[in-house]
Amino acid sequence: MGKTAFIFPGQGSQYVGMGKDFYENSDTAKSVFEMAAKCSGVDVCRLCFEENDDLNITEYTQIAMLADEAAILRTIEEAGYRPDAAAGLSLGEYGALLAAGILSYEDAFSLIRKRGIYMQEAYPEGGGMSAVIGAENDLIEKICKETAEETGKVVSVANYNCPGQIVITGSIDAVTKAGEALSAAGAKRVIPLKVSGPFHSALLKTASDKLAKALEEVNLNEAKVPYITNVTADYVNDISLVKGLLADQVCSSVRWQQSMERFFADGFDTFVEIGPGKTLAGFMKRMNKEARVINVDKFEDLEKLKEL
Question: What letter would DSSP give residue 87?
Fold first, then answer.
């Protein structure tokens, strides 16, 4: 018998209208959106449901995404579905911590609001990120290292998403130069991303430090189910390590591909992607064509869970 993991997407999957039908059709989901607004001081419903320019600004994107993911998660749990483990990409890791029972909803909303602000403010110069398509991990790591040494500026791997899709991050000059070197070395495409900061790089150390301080105030619960962290791509068996990992995650690589490979090795064959879009399902197809992914984004998607 295979195992099921709940997985949660990160920034970039958001869209206006996400979660609206859950809000309208489920009192449980509605109460979660209201709790997110109360804990964060942000009008989350306006942010998620109405046309606005804030949804794609990091400090707002993160609370909007987590509110949606949390509302869907709680609705799924109320219907009686539980995972065997959980993982989330970048901010999605907070969804995984909710699924694992490690963080309370109130603390998660408060933390993610702070995380968004800290990340937005950490590097006012802007920084850059680019998706590198069709190049080996070793080549990308080598060129990032060489470019950083040549320029004296930061450029490193932000996300190992899936085979053939890696995101690099750092100062704009260094990211551009590394991108040119990667294209010359045979990468199929290098696509600059529309982001407001060099996320998951050493340039976000101040955000990491501030988040570490905010985490000191938070109480963690023992995990009800295992979860895999982005930083190590492994299960966190010692609850006392969670806070340090969440702080480190802001300025270190997201090892998503390696996290999923860990699940495959442990017999996981079904993945429920909770939240907006189908980004993680797309990555999964590149990693394991046998894996089954059920996306729960709209209220009607709950019907799909009957297949579990």
Answer: E
pLDDT at 303: 94
Average pLDDT in the chain: 96
pTM (two decimals): 0.96
Q: What is the pLDDT of residues 278-306, one digit of tens each?
A: 999 999 999 999 999 999 999 999 999 98
* Helix, strand, coil in percent for the chain, rounding step 5: 50, 15, 35
In this structure, the answer to whether residues 253 and 173 fall within a common structural domain is: no
Is residue 200 flagged as an active site residue?
A: yes
Catalytic residue among 26, 171, 200, 259: 200
Residue 296 confidence (pLDDT): 98
Distance CA 60, CA 53 (A): 10
Range of the domain at 42: 3-121+203-307
Provide the angle, in degrees to the nearest 10, between the axes of the packed helices 92-99 and 105-121: 170
User: Which of 174, 195, 216 is the C-terminal boundary of a domain?
Assistant: 195
Of 162, 195, 228, the residue that ends a domain is 195
- Catalytic member of 40, 90, 130, 252: 90
Task: Please state the domain count of the chain.
Answer: 2
> Rounded CA gap, 199 and 207, in Å?
10
Q: What is the CATH number of the domain that holds 213?
A: 3.40.366.10
